[in-house]
Design goal:
Layout lengths: L4 H12 L4 E4 L1 H7 L8 E4 L3 H7 L3 E2 L6 E5 L9 E6 L1 E3 L11 E3 L3 H6 L9 E4 L4 E4 L4 H6 L2 E2 L5 H7 L2 H13 L2 E2 L1 H10 L8 H12 L4 H10 L3 H4 L1 H4 L14 H14 L4 H9 L4 H4 L12 H15 L4 H12 L12 H11 L4 H14 L7 H15 L12 H8 L5 H16 L6 H11 L4 H30 L3
Parallel strand pairs: 2-5, 10-11
Antiparallel strand pairs: 1-2, 1-8, 3-4, 4-5, 6-7, 8-9
Helix pairs in contact: 6-8, 7-9, 7-10, 10-13, 13-14, 13-19, 14-17, 14-19, 16-17, 18-20, 20-24, 22-24
Length: 485
């Protein structure tokens, strides 16, 4: 295992001062899995003030005996290293925080308070080798792909109820299973998750959503009895049949939509919208069988989504975006049937910056319905229309000169000729954008004074043709970009 020099130096320094020090926790797990740790943690028998004395370039601003040592590493992951004194914890009356934290005398005491066996290993760095200290068979559980609580799972979850969600999160991220007794303890203690702050629940939930297998994570939350205390609105769809357009119930359809979004590496907002987009169907459903209806489920669903995300303390900008995706996920589009004005209205409602995510949600929705493909040509054609209606129109308004300037230079009255002159100037600018300067265009207007009516008309008709050609070429390029005809 490759241990960074910064970590080795800290441990050597502590050892030199007569203290024991070990790499501990998730970074040991990651090293054993052949992964690069996200962060590094060290535990020691040195007290916080002793650590600060050894490492003057550090700070200690918490009640958990953790000192953060600043290094000069260029690696962001190694700039700040947390060193925590061996500790043990008393009862957790509120199921969230220990009533009291005390110094522990041994590494074994420290490791025994941790959540899962795969996170309760330590690594001793010797001169030229390392030794894994594994008191709870964490290596075996890693090999067997098992999440198992350290010691008595009922005690671990009563200490911190969020550990139940953490078990699901680790099982989801690593594609592991949860050991039977640990799983039974979660089922019996699931109600305790209500004691946890919404912010902490949200953070664990998002780690599940952003994993490679979020659908499995959500189903695990439901099966273990946690989902009904976190987002009961999602569970309402379990077993609720749909109509002739769907082969799955509401809940399964949402999970499959989420699964597709994860497979395609869509971002967090699209994944959440995929999970929530049909959240209102159980509440608005009318009738049964192939002709069942779900009128306005997108409108009601947007309101429900807003409430769920607000309850889980999501940032307002994320709430608004995800809610908007849910609200407009049901847009209708068929090539040749929907007008450009309809698409323009959709873009206005959703926001051009959100259109790509809306189309991704549409793909996830369609695949989640059990169809073989996500209508690639329709979606490409819609992307073409979206870009087309969003482009700045080719117009005389682009010019650095206006009708009043033309009237003044040619000494003419307002009328059709003013527009014709501007059209001629626009054709000049389209061929050579550098000409779009007021002084240059004024000189071009002066030149038009010398033309006969016939010459002016021919020049105007030529300008019209050139502008049409530019518009046609731009449209062809946009079509080619999306492979549409």
């Amino acid at each position: 295992m490759k241990i960074p020099k910064e970590i080795k130096d800290i441990i050597k320094t502590l050892n030199k001062e007569g203290f024991k020090a070990y790499i501990v926790g998730g970074c040991v797990r990651d090293l054993l899995r052949g992964e690069d740790p996200e962060d590094w943690d060290i535990t020691t028998d040195a007290k916080p003030l002793e650590i600060k004395k050894i490492f003057p370039d550090s700070f200690y601003e918490n009640k958990f005996f953790t000192v953060t040592v600043l290094t000069k590493s260029k690696n962001p992951k190694l700039k700040e290293i947390e060193i925590t004194t061996f500790r043990k914890e008393s009862k957790y009356t509120d199921k969230r925080h220990p009533d009291e934290i005390k110094f522990a005398k041994t590494l074994e005491e420290d490791l025994s308070r941790r959540d899962f066996t795969i996170n309760a290993m330590a690594l001793e760095v010797l001169n030229k080798k390392t030794r894994v200290i594994d008191l709870f068979n964490g290596r075996k559980d890693l090999k067997d792909k098992t999440i198992r609580a350290v010691g008595n799972p009922y005690e671990r979850f009563n200490e911190d109820a969020l550990r139940m969600m953490r078990a699901v999160r680790f099982a989801t991220i690593f594609n592991f299973k949860i050991e039977k007794e640990t799983e039974e303890a979660i089922i019996k203690n699931a109600f305790l998750i209500q004691e946890i702050s919404k912010e902490r629940i949200r953070d664990e939930f998002l780690k599940i959503i952003n994993s490679d297998f979020p659908d499995k994570g959500i189903e695990m939350l439901r099966r273990l009895g946690l989902l009904k205390f976190i987002i009961p609105e999602i569970e309402e769809g379990y077993g609720v049949s749909q109509n002739k357009h769907h082969i799955y119930d509401c809940y399964t359809h949402s999970l499959l939509s989420l699964k597709y979004a994860a497979e395609k590496k869509f971002n967090q907002n699209v994944r959440l919208a995929a999970l929530f987009h049909d959240i209102a169907k159980p509440r608005v459903k009318k009738g049964e069988g192939p002709d069942a209806t779900f009128y306005n489920h997108e409108i009601v669903g947007a309101k429900m989504t807003y409430q769920v995300l607000k309850r889980l303390k999501f940032p307002q900008k994320d709430i608004e975006k995800i809610t908007k995706l849910v609200r407009y996920h049901l847009f209708y589009y068929n090539v040749g049937e929907v007008s450009e004005s309809s698409v323009r209205r959709l873009v206005k409602n959703v926001g051009l910056e959100n259109m790509e995510e809306l189309l991704q949600l549409r793909m996830a929705d369609r695949i989640g319905s059990g169809v073989p493909k996500a209508e690639p040509y329709k979606l490409r054609h819609l992307k073409y229309i979206i870009e087309k209606v969003s482009q700045d129109p080719i117009s005389v308004k682009m010019l650095k000169i206006n009708g009043n300037d033309v009237i003044e230079i040619l000494k003419i009255k307002p009328g059709p000729k003013v527009g014709e002159v501007l059209t001629i100037l626009l054709s000049y600018v389209l061929l050579d954008p550098k000409k779009n300067k007021k002084e240059i265009l004024k000189k071009e207007v002066e030149k038009l004074k010398t033309l006969s009516e016939k010459e002016f008309k021919e020049l105007y008709e030529k300008a019209q043709k050139e502008i049409e050609d530019v518009e046609m070429k731009r449209d062809q390029m946009t079509k080619q970009k999306y492979w549409v005809v």
